[in-house]
Amino acid sequence: MCIRQCAFEGHSYDPEKNEVISKEDVCVGCHRCVTLCPTNALTIRQTPLDFRANANWTARAIRDIIKQSETGGVLLTGMGNDRPYPIYWDHLLINASQVTNPSIDPLREPMELRTYLGRKPERLELDGNGGNYRPKEPLPPQLKLETPILFSAMSYGAISYNACESLARSAHALGIYYNTGEGGLHPNLYKYGKNTIVQVASGRFGVHKEYLDAAAAIEIKIGQGAKPGIGGHLPGEKVVEDISKTRMIPKGTDALSPAPQHDIYSIEDLRMLIYALKEATQYTKPISVKIAAVHNSAAIASGMVRAGADIIALDGFRGGTGAAPTVIRDNVGIPIELALASVDQRLRDEGIRHQASIVVAGGFRNSADIFKAIALGADAVYIGTSALIAMGCHVCQKCYTGNCNWGIATQDPYLEKRLNPDIATERLINLIHAWSHEIKEMLGGMGINAVESLRGNRLALRGIGLTDTELDILKVLPAGR
Amino acid sequence: MKRIFVKEEVCIGCRLCEIHCVVEHSKSKNIIKAFKDENPRILPRIFVEEKGKVSFGLQCRHCEEPYCLEACMSGALYKDEKTGAVLHNREQCVGCWMCVMVCPYGVIRRDLNEKKIASKCDLCLGKEIPVCVARCPNEALEYREV
Amino acid sequence: MRPTKPWFEKDISGCSLTGFISEDGKRVSGEAIIQSIALMNERSNGLGGGFAGYGIYPEMKDLYAFHLMFDNTLAKEETERILNELLFVELQEKIPTRKTNGIHHPPLLMRYFTKVDENKLFELEISEEDYIVETVMKINARVKGAYVFSSGKNMGTFKAVGFPDDVGKFYRLEEYQGCTWIAHGRFPTNTPGWWGGAHPFTLLDFAVVHNGEISSYGINKRYLEMFGYECTLMTDTEVMAYLFDLLWRRHRLPIEVVCMALASPTWTEIDHYDGTMELAKAVRTVYGSALVNGPFAILLGHKKGLIGLNDRIKLRPLVAARKGNTLYIASEESGIREICPTPEKLWAPKAGEPIMGWLKEEYQSEFELPRTRISDRERSEPVYSVSGVY
């Protein structure tokens, strides 16, 4: 069975010796064979072919040079930055209230996670009198989320149809949203449109009138955390019939999105596109703009808000991808924690924080990361890799080959069957329920019963093992104060 | 009356159903012993048919009016009153294999060792859920009311 | 006197509070309020007490009375320079006090009756009240060792470190006559010994006394900072005063809506409301950062009346009573009965619903009074005792 299940042909049967033999050098560590083996006979270890210990010339550095001198090509990889840069979430600690403030029990008291994303007016003007007031004008369009978690942009093409369907169905069941990514929207998924955020990326794949009308919100993708500064990449092997139709490109061609959006060369061009989309949808849907977290994210974010964006999506350098050049994924961009802290503070300093909601993405691994992000100022969090892991991914980073053994990052129909949308939907729902409950427990522990009181409340966090400068950027006190 | 239905769009052709069927009908009920030690090895009662990307597991349909029952000379095949399943009595079977010939689904296999039929699904003899359904990793088999 | 920690530590407010308003404008001396708060001394630890009275300066009722505390003469001089630059100071004098056992090392306490130069307003194009707020923020933030206790017309805040009855004696409150009085006794854990940390916290004519802890302080503070308020007094109650100023005065929301923003109903309730659903949803969406989370019971005094409010799940006690034209609100029934032994009505307000008393002279007719569900309830309930014991 392991023979059949490995798309990388790692196992094979030798009829002469009546044995199953394994080819170690093609194993990617996806654990498919291990998981399905009925006798638990298999395990995966890092290959013991060691280079001599060298802190500078690591095995990886050496192997990469060898590969590049053989092929002359750009090294590709999948998923998010795996280098040991500091993870600031692990240096932030959460408060709990005792004695002076009672903690609240989420199992017995109301605990509210509902979040509305979109532009909000600075103040509310009311009509009416004594006991009977109404807002003078309706609020700008908002997205309603039952919990501050959304599914990140993963394009149809990078992931399989079954995976897209699972994300759509679970977003619908949970009362949250999922993002189509730049692959367009498959016609069968239009029925989940109310829970869909569609993306208009630099390649404008699949962008047409019905696409915009079907969605609940539209996102202009300027960049993504895994590869800031360059466009999306879908290798030709993955562009099959359905993908070709949905993206509106010829079959088998590499779908290489251009690096910039060629009609956005400066901030005023962005304003033009935002308002063009708002006009096209009669101002009924919020427009989101997604950028990667880079050095001047705060200034860019401020410009974006003034250009009319209703939601800002910030993708940190741990963000995942289906395919990206390794050197860009590992070296370009900054951690989302610092970017979020500085964007939130800058918008507040300029007095425009209410004009856009901030959604962050990039390597959120558990509910504590999400909680800390909200405390730093995020309105909601996009999860990508975590959602894929819920569906079966083991982060082997070979998405770009199209040979995903779990049926997620593949268009091969034989492999795609392995992802049963019924099972995957349920697993995603389970994950989000579990995390929401954990967030409620942490909120209750702090004596708060509504997530609005956590949002931006930096006093809820303390830093540990951080330098003074980092504490200053995060505007968080050190633990003990 | 519950029967097993297959969802071929999610069957991945892994054949874990066949493996667990063998274990369930073995003497030791232990997977390693069943495959390594027990001789002759038991045949699974469910077979995975596969061609290209299409695959699905197929076993006895436990028909309302089974052809195999009519064709059985010795009366070894009989219908269980409660569940309606078509069951096989090994002692009475003479190995004429008329049932094999007549089954329109081809789900009866011959046991070449003992010259009797060896392989026909028995719905795991009244277990709550048959093991092939329970152990399919992608929920491709369903046990539900007709 | 000012705590010497170089970093900020939020103080919490476990304590007692009481207040009353004579709706017909009848002014009474501060003795009654001292009596009421003194009864509840068990709830404080002697490290803070304070009072606010309205209608106490009738001869100068059109002037802004700044009550200031100075750590040293340098601070006083610098502040006076600022005040003279920004305002006309018609009269300045020491706040009259008497030596009291239990009040030690008082700072310099001064009061200034000021007027705003209309030309300045015209130049800057802001309202008189915004100008006063800016002046207060400037002094608090920029002058080291100077703190503005109150800045309203015909009202004043008196606070110190000590048990509240000692504080009342110290400030000779029996010599003042006011129509609205609120008082507070403190149980601080973070800034013991600092006069500025006592309640009430005042801005213009809004004076807030608070029992509880504001868990959402971090975000309330940052929200207010966006609008130019600076939270310098190291106590979470400060944000309450500023939130009322922002939402009620500057954004001109009706008072019931302000209370709805601070102690919002839950989304489940909003989903089930008919009629006011749009409003509640809009309020929560726009003013989410103004939602005050954590246990609180507050009394807000203002020039037109008195408001009592609890947090949305009523984690702190608050009891109200009426007799004749006077509305009483306090942390404990005993505090009310001490000065009003036979109230006509006595009740405990519901979570998130404000109790309001209004000075009749400020309104032409009954119909202008803001209505809340609690005021309907008030009218129909018979007398009963919260404790069940007479």
What can you see in these coordinates?
The complex is a heterotrimer of chains A (481), B (146) and C (390). Chain A has 481 residues and is of the alpha/beta class. Chain A has two domains: 76 residues, Alpha-Beta Plaits; 356 residues, TIM Barrel, CATH 3.20.20.70. Chain A has 15 helices and 21 strands. In chain A, strand 11, helix 5 and strand 12 form a beta-alpha-beta unit. In chain A, helix 4 crosses helix 14 and helix 8 packs across helix 10. Chain B has 146 residues and is α+β, with helices and mostly antiparallel strands. Chain B folds into two domains: 84 residues, no CATH class; 56 residues, 2-Layer Sandwich (Alpha-Beta Plaits), CATH 3.30.70. Chain B contains five helices and eight strands; from the N terminus they run E-H-H-E-E-H-E-E-H-E-E-H-E. In chain B, the strands form four sheets. Chain B has a two-stranded antiparallel ribbon. In chain B, strands 2-3 form a two-stranded antiparallel sheet. Chain B is globular and about 40 Å long. The mean pLDDT of chain B is 87. Chain C contains twelve helices and 18 strands. Helices cover 29% and strands 26% of the residues of chain C. Chain C has a single domain, classed as Glutamine Phosphoribosylpyrophosphate, subunit 1, domain 1 (4-Layer Sandwich), CATH 3.60.20.10. Chain C has 390 residues and is α+β, with helices and mostly antiparallel strands. In chain C, a hairpin with a 2-residue loop joins strand 15 and strand 16. The interface between A and C is large, with 42 and 51 residues.
